[in-house]
Q: What sequence folds into this?
């Protein structure tokens, strides 16, 4: 899905970038490239398309997370004493997550992904400006240290927003509330049960580490025998 959206976005971006009100196009014979004389409005349109693509990417990630959350929630609340037609206790409904994301929580997912897209845009702009400042300062070490501290703070804020969004999506899937109340209630719930959440997060990180370790070992062994 994302690949199709990206191809369509590249096609639209090429069309917008080629807009030249004056019709003047600078040609570089060495590299065989052409540069259109774009107006300020066209440049703002390009910037808007870049932000829109970041927002769409964050929205697709949010929908994927919400579908997985709804699938887990439906399995948790389903009856497990009566086997289904497949003979497996419990029922995990993926299509219900997709239906809920479009029918009930489309605006909430757009809002959560929009906040994340703003954070990503700020980080990208800072990385670009920080690189320019670092080169202009003659690669000063103090400047590099300061930029590294600011980048670390932005990364921490990015991780906090993603963590808050994920828990808000979980609360949305269970309570059917919108994004802002879900984010507030999930944040207060985490504060009231910080020890339990820390234990569960640590346990899940341990299982994820074991899964990654097993995948790395198994692929290494398979690659060894294939070679």
A:
């Amino acid at each position: 899905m994302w690949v199709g959206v990206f191809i369509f976005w590249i096609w639209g971006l090429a069309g917008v970038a080629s807009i030249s009100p004056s019709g003047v196009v600078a040609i570089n014979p060495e590299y065989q490239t052409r540069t259109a004389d774009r107006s300020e409005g066209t440049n703002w349109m390009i910037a808007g398309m870049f932000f829109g693509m970041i927002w769409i990417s964050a929205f697709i990630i949010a929908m994927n997370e919400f579908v997985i959350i709804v699938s887990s929630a439906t399995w948790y609340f389903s009856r497990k004493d009566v086997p289904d037609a497949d003979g497996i206790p419990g029922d995990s409904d993926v299509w219900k997550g997709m239906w809920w994301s479009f029918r009930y929580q489309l605006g909430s997912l757009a809002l959560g992904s929009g906040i994340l897209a703003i954070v990503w845009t700020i980080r990208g702009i800072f990385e670009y400006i920080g690189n320019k400042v670092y080169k202009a300062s003659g690669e000063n070490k103090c400047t590099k240290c300061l930029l590294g501290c600011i980048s670390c703070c932005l990364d921490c804020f990015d991780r906090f927003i993603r963590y808050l969004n994920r828990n808000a999506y979980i609360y949305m899937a269970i309570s059917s509330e919108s994004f802002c109340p879900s984010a507030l209630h999930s944040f207060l719930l985490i504060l009231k049960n910080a020890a339990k959440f820390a234990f569960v997060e640590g346990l899940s990180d341990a299982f994820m580490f074991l899964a990654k370790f097993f995948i790395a070992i198994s692929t290494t062994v398979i690659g060894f025998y294939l070679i």
